[in-house]
């Protein structure tokens, strides 16, 4: 069975932002270790990072032609920043 784990970045600091510089070396190391643990799991396939909400585009086909428009526009708190694909393996135990 597969699951998609969505990453909601929202307004959380990223390594590209100024707020990131306010974290201690210990904190940034811990963040990196946590992401590495997820990425190194055999059951996880990292997805490509997604763009910022302000750069979103919608692509659709109308009358056989591809149409690209700006949007959809979402509140940054609800924006998905990326995803992981989780492959769940295991055995089901019979209930007695």
Helix-residue proportion: 10-25%
- Strand percentage lies at 25-35%
Shape: flat
Measured between the Cα atoms of the first and last residue, the distance is 24 Å
User: What is the count of β-strands?
Assistant: 5
Rounded to an integer in angstroms, the radius of gyration calculated over CA atoms is 18 Å
Order of helices and strands: EHEEEE
Report the uncertain regions: none
Give, in spatial order, the strands making up the sheet with the most strands.
1-5-2
Task: Kindly name the structural category.
Answer: alpha+beta
Characterize the biggest β-sheet: 3 strands, antiparallel
Average predicted confidence as pLDDT: 75
**Tally of discrete structural domains:** 1
Description:
With about 100 residues, this protein is α+β, with helices and mostly antiparallel strands. The protein has one domain (about 1-85). The chain is about 15% helix and about 30% strand. It has a 3-stranded antiparallel sheet with strand order 1-5-2, with no helix packed on it. The chain has a two-stranded antiparallel ribbon with strand order 3-4. A hairpin with a 2-residue loop joins strand 3 (about 55-60) and strand 4.
